[in-house]
């Protein structure tokens, strides 16, 4: 029992082992502090953990690309190979934009910043030619510059040009789209840049829309894109939002804010919910080459104009060396222009992701519930119930997060509650282990004492076995001088000591008394009852009148054995007297297995007569005596039910039928010992590696006649 307690402690059973130190105030106070730090955003690495959680949502269930409102004109490797390295002359860029504009797009977004005049304009090139004739230079400078050519094209079509925000002071000149503020001033909440990298004024003044292109990268991953940001004190929409404004034809874009920050942005009747800083979580689909059209095809006219009609066309780079490739939440590296396209698709498909302002409160509530579960519920449960409950909680929390993401586009961070749960649960198990280790030494000392006591008991049991086996006679020694009798017997206890018995001895010069019995039960109490029964039977047989009926002798023994029997034990027995002069067998069967009779070449017979119930069942029962004359060819095989009820590993029984077949295969040359050994071998072979369930006892008798 103590050993089982030790095992429970070692496997970490936390029932009633949570130390008062942890249970009293450390864990509850620690839980409250973690909740406070969570709400204030002070937990280190929590933002990275949250980002990983949201990325995992998108990896498991990426957005399906339903509509295709945006298409990208791609200045790719093939375009650079065909038309030369970047920067191209602005005249070629103007040609590209004009080809797109002629296809009647809803809006054109240019994801390119041109902060310097074009160096390959006619006048600029002329000034670089040594010794150029002054008149020729004047003629070249009278031609329109490439920037003027590009500005003229930009004016003809609904184009958007962007700026890049930088976090250092830098002189800049902005042309901003008018903004309508609804509610509180959003400026303190949105992402604000100190300066900006802009295109030249000629190009900025030519376009119909102005936007900001910047997005913050978190450890190489673009998770959020600002839909509105500020450069200095000027509000600018994102490239995607400004393209939507031009496509709708709205004169302004709107920003709705309250005391907690930005609620959403919009153009016309389109409202887009955002985070408090004016950004949105990009809901990514997998990279799709169908979004892209090579600039080479457009410049060469190898495209269907309907491809761009009423579409939102983005012009950007994918050529290596021209642009960095940030990672998406799906783990794919894509050009930045594709992220703008994905934002437009998300808005069109009404599948923008949102992390509501109440999300931290929900997450804090989950952390509180899991913390209370770990601190107060789990310590009261057994380990076999703890683990399934923990797995169930983890699965339910993961399922809830996935359902909110996939069905409602709501982002709830389940990684932070998971982390808190894991920390508290590990602390709980660590406390249990420390408490258990504090008791192991004392328990091991108890275990050593128990082992010593067990060894003493084992020694005593072995001594008891030796004593029990010593009082069971060896037939070979008892009858070695009696040629008229061939008797063999064996007894093998199932445990250290057994409850079977046998005895055999000469009553006089011509009569042999034998008994074989089976006490109900096994172990020490059965062995003691067996010794008492055997001793009383032998004593009564030796001191009784030789002419007394065997049944009367057994009745006397029954009364003696039943007299002091508080445990209500009983013994089945087959008792016989064999007259060696005639082969006459007198026997009493007190509830025992009927013995077998067999002779070489003959079918097996049975002594079927029953004299009465087992001994010690009814103290006044009078047992009947039966007679049988043995021939010199016959073997009498007496056994206990340990033989017929021997079981193999599949719990199949040896059975009486199998025993009869073994006995029936008796050979002419076999004696009693050979038959007994054959039965024993067959039983043990049948059992295989199975442990015996009962004592194995068998006695074989053969009368040789009067020689």
Quick synopsis:
The protein has 707 residues and is of the alpha/beta class. 41% of the residues lie in helices and 19% in strands.
The beta-strand count equals: 26
Report low-confidence residues grouped into runs of 5 or more: 1-18
The percent of residues in helical segments reads 40-55%
Termini separation (Å)? 64 Å
Average pLDDT works out at: 85
Count of helical regions: 21
Taken as a percent bin, the fraction of beta residues is 15-25%
Query: Which structural class do you get from the secondary structure elements?
Result: alpha/beta
State the major sheet: 7 strands, mixed
- Globally, the shape reads rod-shaped
Radius of gyration: 51 Å
How is this structure best described in words?
It is a single chain. By secondary structure, the chain is an alpha/beta fold. It has 21 helices and 26 strands. Strands 1, 2, 3, 6, 7, 15 and 16 form a 7-stranded mixed beta sheet that branches. The protein has a 5-stranded antiparallel beta sheet with strand order 17-26-25-22-23. The protein has a 5-stranded antiparallel beta sheet with strand order 18-19-20-21-24, covered by helices on one side. Helix 1 (2-10) runs antiparallel to helix 15 (415-470). The longest helix is centred in the middle third of the chain and has 56 residues, at 415-470. It is rod-shaped, with a radius of gyration of 51 Å.
């Amino acid at each position: 029992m103590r050993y089982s307690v030790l095992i429970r402690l070692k496997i970490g059973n936390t029932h009633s082992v949570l130390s008062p130190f942890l249970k009293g105030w450390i864990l509850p106070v620690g839980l409250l502090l973690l909740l406070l730090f969570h709400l204030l955003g002070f937990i280190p690495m929590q933002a990275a953990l949250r980002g990983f959680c949201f990325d995992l949502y998108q990896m498991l269930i990426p957005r399906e690309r339903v509509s295709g409102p945006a298409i990208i004109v791609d200045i790719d490797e093939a375009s650079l190979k065909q038309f030369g390295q970047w920067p191209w002359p602005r005249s070629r860029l103007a040609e590209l934009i004009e080809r797109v504009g002629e296809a009647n797009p809803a809006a054109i977004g240019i994801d390119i910043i041109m902060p310097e005049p074009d160096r390959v304009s006619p006048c600029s090139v002329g000034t670089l030619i040594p010794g150029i004739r002054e008149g020729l230079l004047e003629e070249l400078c009278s031609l329109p510059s490439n920037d003027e050519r590009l500005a003229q094209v930009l004016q003809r079509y609904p184009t958007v040009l962007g700026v890049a925000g930088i976090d250092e002071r830098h002189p800049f000149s902005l042309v901003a789209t008018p903004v309508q503020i609804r509610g509180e001033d959003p400026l303190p909440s949105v992402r604000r840049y100190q300066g900006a990298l802009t295109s030249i004024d000629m190009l900025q003044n030519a376009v119909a829309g102005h936007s900001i292109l910047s997005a913050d990268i978190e450890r190489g991953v673009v998770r959020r894109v600002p839909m509105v940001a500020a450069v200095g004190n000027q509000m600018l929409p994102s490239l995607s939002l400004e393209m939507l404004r031009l496509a709708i034809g709205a004169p302004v874009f709107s920003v709705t804010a309250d005391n907690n920050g930005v609620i959403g942005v919009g153009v016309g009747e389109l409202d887009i919910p955002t985070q408090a800083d004016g950004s949105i979580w990009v809901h990514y689909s997998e990279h799709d080459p169908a979004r892209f059209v090579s600039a080479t095809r457009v410049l060469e006219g190898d495209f269907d104009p309907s491809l761009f009609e009423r579409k939102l066309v983005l012009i950007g780079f994918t050529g290596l060396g021209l642009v960095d490739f940030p990672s998406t939440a799906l783990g794919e590296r894509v050009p930045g222009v594709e992220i703008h396209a994905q934002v437009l698709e998300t808005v069109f498909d009404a599948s923008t992701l949102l992390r509501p302002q109440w999300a931290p409160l929900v997450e804090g509530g989950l952390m509180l519930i899991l913390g209370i579960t770990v601190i107060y519920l789990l310590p009261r449960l057994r380990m076999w119930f703890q683990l399934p409950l923990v797995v169930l909680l983890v699965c339910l929390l993961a399922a809830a997060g996935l359902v909110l993401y996939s069905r409602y586009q709501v982002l709830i961070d389940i990684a932070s509650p998971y982390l808190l749960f894991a920390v508290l649960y590990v602390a709980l198990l660590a406390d249990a282990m420390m408490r258990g280790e504090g008791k192991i030494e004392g328990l091991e000392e108890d275990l050593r004492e128990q082992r010593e006591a067990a060894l003493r008991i084992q020694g005593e049991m072995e001594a008891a076995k030796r004593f029990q086996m010593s009082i069971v006679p060896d037939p070979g020694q008892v009858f070695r001088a009696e040629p008229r009798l061939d008797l063999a017997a064996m007894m093998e206890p199932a445990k250290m000591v057994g409850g079977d018995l046998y005895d055999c001895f000469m009553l006089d010069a011509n009569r042999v008394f034998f008994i074989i019995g089976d006490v109900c039960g096994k172990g020490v109490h059965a062995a003691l009852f067996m010794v008492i029964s055997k001793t009383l039977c032998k004593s009564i047989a030796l001191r009784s009148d030789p002419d007394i009926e065997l049944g009367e002798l057994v009745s006397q023994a029954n009364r003696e054995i039943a007299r002091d029997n508080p445990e209500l034990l009983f013994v089945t027995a087959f008792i016989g007297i064999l007259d060696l002069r005639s082969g006459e067998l007198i026997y009493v069967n007190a509830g025992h297995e009927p013995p077998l009779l067999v002779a070489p070449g003959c079918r097996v017979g049975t002594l079927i007569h029953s004299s009465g119930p087992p001994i010690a069942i009814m103290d006044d029962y009078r047992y009947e005596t039966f007679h049988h004359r043995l021939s010199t060819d016959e073997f009498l095989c007496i056994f206990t039910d340990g033989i017929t009820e021997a079981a193999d590993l599949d719990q199949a029984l040896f059975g009486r039928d199998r025993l009869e077949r073994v006995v029936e295969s008796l050979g002419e040359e076999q004696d009693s010992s050979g038959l007994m050994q054959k039965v024993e071998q067959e039983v043990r072979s049948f059992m295989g590696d199975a442990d015996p369930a009962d004592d194995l006892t068998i006695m074989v008798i053969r009368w040789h006649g009067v020689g």
